[in-house]
């Protein structure tokens, strides 16, 4: 049919087809279905308007015929809105990455022995996509003094992790927040700073560790003395009893 419209008597000719569909960030779906003939544009179906566009005069008659056929139009639309979108979501190589994982945000803190200042750490883990906006806020404003942050790094499952720290005067703890924004979150997070663990708990832990080490050391000394004593004892001659002292 196309050979007749282009006044071609024979030979080899190429019909090409491109199916394109996508999902926007706001969830809107769009795409097109395009035909080419011998390397030239022929017919173009716009999913947004559900209309055909003819690239030349020869394609006009087919365009009019397909627009009259309601079943053809419905078949193209259903394929674009259903089958193409399913392929897009199942195979990331051919479509957009629709996966969104929110970060799991945890807070930790400690008191510095030298000056009594507090160091607070805000850790974000398991988020996707990679882009994340995390800042320290003081009274609602971005705060950069005495802060440190790492680079976003990948996890084994394809998600990412990131952490940042800040050193503050404990008297001003209530003024600070860890502020996190990410595509996987419905709304930004503002995490309060935690009170560091008490020093009594710290000394209890240290005391327990020291106690275990001392016990191990005493046991080791006793074993060494026993081994040495065994080596110093005289050998028993046959028929003789060992000499003992009162």
Kindly describe this structure.
By secondary structure, this protein is α+β, with helices and mostly antiparallel strands. The protein folds into 2 domains: 1-94, Murine Class I Major Histocompatibility Complex, H2-DB, Chain A, domain 1, CATH 3.30.500; 104-192, Sandwich (Immunoglobulin-like). The chain is 29% helix and 32% strand. It is built from 4 helices and 13 strands. It has helices at residues 2-5, 57-68, 70-90, 199-232, and strands at residues 15-23, 29-37, 40-46, 51-54, 104-111, 118-127, 133-138, 141-142, 147-149, 153-154, 160-168, 176-181, 189-192. The strands form 3 sheets. Strands 5, 6, 9, 10 and 11 form a 5-stranded antiparallel β-sheet that branches. The chain has a 4-stranded antiparallel β-sheet with strand order 1-2-3-4, covered by helices on one side. The protein has a 4-stranded antiparallel β-sheet with strand order 8-7-12-13, with no helix packed on it. The longest helix has 34 residues, at 199-232.
SSE inventory with pairings:
Elements: H1 2-5, E1 15-23, E2 29-37, E3 40-46, E4 51-54, H2 57-68, H3 70-90, E5 104-111, E6 118-127, E7 133-138, E8 141-142, E9 147-149, E10 153-154, E11 160-168, E12 176-181, E13 189-192, H4 199-232
Antiparallel strand pairs: 1-2, 2-3, 3-4, 5-6, 6-11, 7-8, 7-12, 9-11, 10-11, 12-13
